Fold these 4 entries.
Entry 1:
Amino acid sequence: MYRNGVLEKEGFPVEEVSEYVRDPDNTVWFDLCHPTQDDLGVLREELGLHELAVEDVVSGHQRPKVDSYDGHLFITVYGIHVDDGRLAPVEVDVFVTANALVTIREDERFDIGQVTRRWDATDGTLGANGVSFLLHGLLDYVVDGHLDYVEDIDGRIENLEEQLFDEDRPIDGRALQRAIYELRRDLTRFRKIAMPMREVLGTLLRRNQGLVAGTAMAPYYEDVYDHVIRVDEWLESTRDQLANLRETRLAQQGMRLNEIMKRLTGWAAIIAVPTLITGFYGMNVPYPGYGSGWGFWLSAVLIAGISVGLYAAFKKRDWL
């Protein structure tokens, strides 16, 4: 519980929340991690939360959004967590009243300690803005996590591009295809949680909820909104990069196949010459050199001469 931006009390049970929020100078933050139905029931009674908002918490897997109810807002966002190289977003639901903020985490993978440290590291005068200050710290941490993640994805794509054109290191085609597939899968999942954040911040900035518009916190929310736009633009750029990487890989495979077919065709033409000559000299009819030693040497010279001539001609045209 904060009073005029100064921490005064912590560690109290949720049953005391309604007592503290009666005083408009108090700001209460309450955090729940994977709460039970009973926990949510007590919270609903203490803060007068709408049943549909509480139902959204229970059902889970909500789209990032802002829902406005009589007396409070319900916000859903997703924090970034990577599990064994795979993106595993963590849902965080937020109830916002005039002087209370409730965060409900899906599990411990969302480090709420990072959020509190960010609050503590901020200029103390901003804490007097109450709930809008606390909500800003939470959203700023979430969006910064999105920005760090898309930057990491961009770096991984650049590494794949370097491998694609690195002639000193042979490319493991199967490993490259798997890496591209995993990146496309994670980007698709990330896009579902990152793109709606623009609407979330835009709603908080546009609507006159008395929470952001016209307050000292408005420029700070604008800064978070700017980061959201950066994430969106960077996300679209990485999607294009990944698509170009996949197309380039397919083009390389096609060019490689053409090179192989060109060489095979050249060698087939060279091999056809001795086949033709030996087949001609294998006929059981008289021909120049038939039954004579010089006939054998003539066929050998023809085979060697024509084959070498074809090889030189194909090599000059880069067919071999």
Entry 2:
Amino acid sequence: MRSGDAPAAASGRDQPTGYRYWSFWLRDPDDADDGTAWRYATEGPGTLRPADGTVLGFRFGIGTGAGGAEQPRGEETFASVCDSETPGEGERRVALVLDFGTPGEAPAGEVPPPPATACAVVADGATAAEALASVADPLRYDRSGLLCAVRGYPERGCGEQASVAPEDSPAAEEDDGDDGAGTGTGGDGVPGGTGLWFGIAAVAVLAAAALGRGRRRDR
């Protein structure tokens, strides 16, 4: 603990139980109408090249060794996010769900933005990282290329140890109680502890992926 930091009890948080980071999820186009069909990505966004019609999810939160990472909330479909976009020749559409997490998962002094969706229209062969860069500026990375912030959130910190605020803490009381999908590894069979570290690796996106930005549409 740094000099001047409040003890964990005073801040309403227990000792660290996981790591605060952006996890990466996806749904196959055929499953996009099912809000529970999120699965933990087994390939990082820097190398995954989504097909037209893919739904990608990025969720900020605290991943624990016992339960993995929280899934993105909401039941947005590819049609609801991207139907009004028409790709040009040599382009493809990718729907993105951006879930900034709950107040209880937020770094001290920060308030998460509401969940958002965006339709990225990118060149054929573009990576998921390029799709994210086209709709979610400003992005922030650490020196190793780990994705730290989407649309500027959070303003500081990257992959640090943390724990979810207890339900009776002021931070948790700000939450509306609707956590959406539950915790877990997203059905990919990766155990919680391994899944946590794999999740951190999965969001290690190179900043160079910001090249080749496509058109964007926010909802």
Entry 3:
Amino acid sequence: MKILELAEPGPLRDAGVSAILAGTKTAMTGLPAIYEKEGEPLPAAGERYSVIDSEGRPVAIIELTRVATEPIGAVDDAYAHAEGRGYRDAADWRSAHEDFFRSDFVAEYLGFVPDFDDDTPVVTQRFRLIETLG
């Protein structure tokens, strides 16, 4: 089973993990460039992940139910709300994701700061909580 590390360890990961455990986070988003850098194929529906917290402990198992590569400009309010982080709408979601994907953490990992326009592809992933651990 693959391991899912949301964001970087710390408050952002902890908030995401808490939202998964509470059942309010049922979606997450990635950049194709991150998968390319890892040498990994894009995720697919049916894959299961062990979600780890900031301490590296497995806390849940999730299963992807839908995966799509789509333009960032096509993400709608319903998807933004499914991210479980309290986004008001798709514009709020987009702003937060562009900020994260341009962060020092991501830029250092990728070796560049990504540019964004309405057509920039993102990997949208819907999932369901299978089991909580510990």
Entry 4:
Amino acid sequence: MRAIRLPAFSIAASFGTSAATWVLLQQFTVRGLVAIKFLAIGRMLGPSAIGSVSIALLGVAIAESLSDTGLPQAVIQGTNTPTRSELAAVWTTLATRGLLVALLLIALAPVMNSQFHLGNALVLLQLAAALPLIRGVASPAYFVVQRNRGFQHIAGIEIAAAFVDCCTGLAFAFGGAGAYSLLIGMIVGETLKSTLTWATMKPRPPIRAAWSGIGHYIGFSRWIWAGSVVNLLLNQFDKVVVGKLLGPAQLGAYQMSSKLAQMLLTDAAFAMGQYLFPTFSAQHRHDARVAARLVKLYLVVVACGLTMFVVLLRMTAAPLFALILGPAWMSAVPLFKIFVINMAIGALIAVLVAYLRAVGDAKATTHASLIQMVILFAIVPPLTHFWGVTGIAWSMTVGMGSAATWMLYRTLRRHNAPSFP
């Protein structure tokens, strides 16, 4: 196979401001800090407390997905760099969205507390409402820096926020704050991140209400929104079912097995997706044929590495849980063995999504999500009836495999995608 030489877009290890090294360093550090916090607090508090926090974050994820504007991705993918007035309209839209989501979560907290049988977790649910508001007021210059592939700058902010999040969460956990410690750490970390986007990133948009000037983003962003809504059903459907039918303790075991598999397999791929989306976008604008060739190379390398890692993790699942989380979590081992397959597929999807969005084919990812949703609705009831929570986990894996197959088909059939030489 002929070597691909792309000096301007090389991912060779370097420390230039646009090097993939910064994305990998960011992912390794941030996910490592999240893992330390999550696993340490999980070991201290047990499945039930983790399940309660998971339901609080579930509410945030649902509200944010339903209100996703798609504007960040549109800014990154667009042909022209946004002006300050356009960024002001982006900020107004995102800040308003964050405020409305926060108010909605506060209003619905009593209903969620009752429906998921959480007992005295009302304040925990309301505290989570601060997260979308803090994220919404961050500077949209962050997206411009992503567009310009300023990965060194982004890595500095993300690592600083994750470090503060981890330290704060652990401090409150050891101080006896219980499940609240996880959310308090996240709130402090997000506050620092939003502050740093305004303090260190340019161009700074004027802080004023502006609603016009971003209509040209709608054509692309509407597919992002549609994808977010469908992905909401796909990514949160299983958690809602487990939490509603089986309660916080079972949800905690389900979430921990999923989270650990995600940390070990999917997070690194999503980090590469953060690098690949703006990189593929820039390369596609420059030479679409080379971008198509690159995505094939990435897919082959990622698939081979994931296969070996999945086999290793399934063989060592029981001792891994015993060492990291302790005997209280051993019931989650069978779920973990399923989720490592699930998350490996998710890692491949991260590469495919980055490419398809970069070339402007965001609707392909939405179509894949719709396929996954139809399959899930068809197989979840019977598999849950016969195998309970294990059936739900296998259903998610089959659905993700179907979505990945569709996106791979769309990627390979593009007219401007040549075969390997």
